[in-house]
User: Which sequence fits this backbone?
């Protein structure tokens, strides 16, 4: 099968959508204009770093590649709109992998009503690379950035963290609906998704907002996977919850008044207040003591 | 340098642009809404297939990665708007390669006023991969597709083809201005850029339009590189012009009346009429004889 045959096959898989003026098979796709700002995110996943193809298969890779991008749209409280997909397939992998990947990408995209409108498929002697660029729209309330946190804000997370490497990292649950529900209910000051790690991603908010935060150790929701992983690693479950990453929950800050409203009548399940913003620094309050917290998490290192 | 430091560096390189509401450093970029359809294209380049990094260096790779995407916007007669960039760098390459790539990407983008608004930078044990997703806008005359060619149309190309592997393939000249000038002057029925090869890309137009074409051998503009390469390959220069690809010239079809107008007062330099559309088939007229022409060109093969 050559690339053109594959594109023909892809075209048959894609239902028509009134927002898609031109779909796969031309030099560009075209989307209908919108009155709202266009959100754009791109994430590129590689074999051996973000997944192990031989262990998980193409379908799981496709799902993850789409889901991590959907999570970035959630992290701006946006509504996903359409996606394009780039792939580099190992030459010996064949059409089966291309199709499995596409099925996984499409299955995850369809959960959120997102058409795949174009792409680029290549082969090489190297390992699998999957790139997704996802488009979304800001809601009428606007996109929520990382930069709006203020001292005194309460800090929340949408669910338990840690130990995602035991399998959850392959099946992220993008918090699109949760972000939209929160955005309608309260004024979100700052928002991010947990990809690098709870502490590292919170630190991105602090860095952009120019303030600090103190987390309460006992308040941080620890996933059962973090407890399980701690048995093997010898580290504390809290360490895994703060540092593992790829949880794809949302961290956000709101005024104390909005925080109280969320605690009284949470618009989404799983919300936990984990601390508050302060003037500067990143701190962990544990057993009555405040100590510095390292913003550790997954960071791609260059030499 | 970690990824976050690199993103900070990238942010300092990017001038502010009124269309860019949110640039690099958040979970998504955001572009101001537009009343025109949004064009989207994505192309992914890999070391050893699209370039040889050790021979050409990061800057040339960056330029090519941006240029081939710009060429796809030209191939819809659109105006480029903004780009996002994904990279997978070899772990041993270091920051120099990341910066060289970015300089090349930005230099090419700036030639067409295109801001780089976001991206994703990763490292791995494999070879370099660069992915660009480019956005554009259709003009008020609409996007030109591959599917509008009709029997009787005249077929044009914007410049000489063949032998791009001698070096031109690394420095494509995206025909953005040429496409816009043509689109203003005549009614373009079908349009594509020459990436796979003159015959192969013309065949994409024929396939989408449901018609055929007869090219005139003597009318096809042959690049000096094709003549040079023919000395080494033993093939005819015309064979290189028809099959080599990566010329990034534009092929288009217009009515005979519009074709005559173009010949009388060409709005861009380098235009050549190379044949006409017929009911079916792909043919080459040479020395008074019509024979079938294979739509050969560069095709990524899967097993």
Assistant:
């Amino acid at each position: 099968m050559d690339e053109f045959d594959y594109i023909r096959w892809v075209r048959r898989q894609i239902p028509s959508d009134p927002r898609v003026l031109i779909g796969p098979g031309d030099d560009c796709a075209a989307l209908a204009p919108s009155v709202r700002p266009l959100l754009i995110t791109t994430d590129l996943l590689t074999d051996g770093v973000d997944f192990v193809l031989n262990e998980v298969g193409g379908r799981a890779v496709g799902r993850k590649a789409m889901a991590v991008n959907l999570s970035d749209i959630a992290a701006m409280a946006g509504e996903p709109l359409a996606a394009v997909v780039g792939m580099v397939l190992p030459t010996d992998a064949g059409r089966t992998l291309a199709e499995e990947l596409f099925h996984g990408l499409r299955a995850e995209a369809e959960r959120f009503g997102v058409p795949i409108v174009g792409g680029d498929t290549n082969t090489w002697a190297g390992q699998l690379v999957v790139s997704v660029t996802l488009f979304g729209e800001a809601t009428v309330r606007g996109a929520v950035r990382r930069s709006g946190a203020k001292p005194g804000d309460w800090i929340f997370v949408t669910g338990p963290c840690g130990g995602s490497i035991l399998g959850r990292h392959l099946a992220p649950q993008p918090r699109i609906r949760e972000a939209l529900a929160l955005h309608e209910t309260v004024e979100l000051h700052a928002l991010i998704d947990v990809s690098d790690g709870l502490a590292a991603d919170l630190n991105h908010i602090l860095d952009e907002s120019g303030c600090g935060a103190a987390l309460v150790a006992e308040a941080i929701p620890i996933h059962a996977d973090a407890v399980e992983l701690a048995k093997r690693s010898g580290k504390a479950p809290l360490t895994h919850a703060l540092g593992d990453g790829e949880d794809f929950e949302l961290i956000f800050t709101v005024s104390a008044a909005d925080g109280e409203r969320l605690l009284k009548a949470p618009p989404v399940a799983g919300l936990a207040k984990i601390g508050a913003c302060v003037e500067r620094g990143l701190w962990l309050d544990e057993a009555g003591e405040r100590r510095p917290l390292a913003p550790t998490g997954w960071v791609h290192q260059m030499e």
